[in-house]
Specification:
This protein is α+β, with helices and mostly antiparallel strands. The protein has one domain: Nucleoside Triphosphate Pyrophosphohydrolase. Helix content is about 15%, strand content about 35%. The protein contains 2 helices and 9 strands, in the order E-E-E-E-H-E-E-E-E-E-H. Strands 4-1-7-6 form a 4-stranded mixed β-sheet, with helices on one face. The radius of gyration is 14 Å and the shape is globular. The N and C termini lie far apart (about 30 Å). The model has no long low-confidence stretch (mean pLDDT about 95).
């Protein structure tokens, strides 16, 4: 089984909403919702990878906050992810959608209403219950 190391951000706005991103058409797991982030490249720390991914995906320079969760998930297809999830409360620059089908700021309590990637579902439940942030 191939284990992919990934990072994701709970970008939180001043109203306490989190930024959700919808996977684009034509990509694996298209249409499902996720948190911005991506793969950790060789030689990067988790924080460096997340800062780079947020710049590439959203055009922002983020201040990476506390790691709030660490999840391992095995997909039925045989792949697995090791996901480190960080809080991000501050960033510079204007959010620009470079890769996603859709993006939206969503109250934490509304997260369970979205169809998330399987690896994110426990995070979604804990965020909605107020356990992580």
């Amino acid at each position: 089984m191939r284990l992919v190391l990934v990072v994701a951000a709970a970008l939180i706005d001043a109203d306490g909403r989190v930024l959700l991103a919808q996977r684009p058409k034509g990509k694996p797991l298209e249409g499902l919702w996720e948190f911005p982030g991506g793969k950790i490249e060789a030689g990067e720390s988790a924080e460096q990878a997340l800062r780079r991914e947020l710049d590439e995906e959203l055009g922002i320079q983020a201040t990476i906050g506390t790691r709030v969760a660490h999840v391992r998930h095995s997909y039925r297809s045989g792949g697995a992810v090791d996901l480190q999830f960080f809080a991000v409360h501050t960033f510079e620059g204007e959010l620009v959608n470079h890769i996603f089908e859709d993006m939206r700021w969503t109250p934490l309590k509304d997260l369970p209403g979205y169809d998330f990637l399987a690896a994110d579902r426990d995070l979604v439940r804990d965020l909605a219950a107020g356990k992580l942030l």
